[in-house]
Write a structure and sequence with these properties.
With about 350 residues, this protein is an alpha/beta fold. The chain has eleven helices and twelve strands.
Amino acid sequence: MPERSDSSGAILVTGAAGFVGSTLARRLRRRWPTRPLVAIDALTYAGDRQSLAPLDGDPAFTFVHADIADREAMRATFAAHRPQWVFHLAAETHVDRSILDPLAFVRTNVEGTASLLHAARQAWGEGRDPRFVMVSTDEVYGALGPTGAFRADSPLDPSSPYSASKAGADLLALAWHRTYGLPVVVTRCSNNYGPRQFPEKLIPVVVGRALAGEVVPVYGTGDNVRDWIHVDDHADGLIAAAERGAPGAVYCFGADNEQQNLALVHRILDAVDGLTGRDVGASRALVRFVTDRPGHDFRYAIDADETRRALGWAPRVSFAEGLAATVRWFIDHADWCRRRREAARRFEEVWYSRREAGS
């Protein structure tokens, strides 16, 4: 499928110091070594400025420390850098946190997205064929039963404040397209994994606890199923959506890697054992079943066939190879994990103190 002819304008990535955002920024730079690249991040607990360190010193790279809900900051950023493409990844993403503090998710995911859409609409006139890629999640579709898979046109049925806030952001983006003609493309993806994922997510949590000999909590009976895709494959899909996506369209990214949670936890623990010289299977004794969280969706799965045909994209990283490399990365970067967990601990102390004060 042909690419857009104009690929010289600036690229703006929000949430660029996060897991997927920093991966995307690195891949964009490898694809276009001299194209202006602007990274925005509020650097909350999950944002790590060091994830963008390979781009420091690059004369075509700019980092903007800003909150997407700050409308004046977004207007100024668009005016200064005149981006041709926007990849909007900035979001609060942790479901458990959304249950405890839903309004924080509404502010960033809904109000922040509206702020960014408004800035894009104000900045973009005719020409240069811009694209606004709204990066979302399969969780907006709610839960699947034991069979079937989500498609782009599956009805939205979010279960948690997190997924509801992302569904709201998607609908705003599509409304900006239908009402104002903003060239929006929406993408929805299954669970990501890979290096530098913040250690509140399943894979790094299990690795870190196994290394420390700590209990590994598993919700309910561990029967819930998730569909996994390597972060590199997701980033490549986002680039394809900007290059070849149709305005107003929704594209779903998945890699046909459904895994039962408990089986995946056992697989991770066995990998840790094998890579650290322990008896393989010994760490399974660390598993403890805990009370299931409210609104815990049973199963997610993505049917990406339509996206593959429309965008000429396909995942390349096998789950076996990707998981092994990911577990190895977290073992080799234990200091990074400790530093990120400490950032989360400091965030939680401030968050709980504000919550108790009613602010």
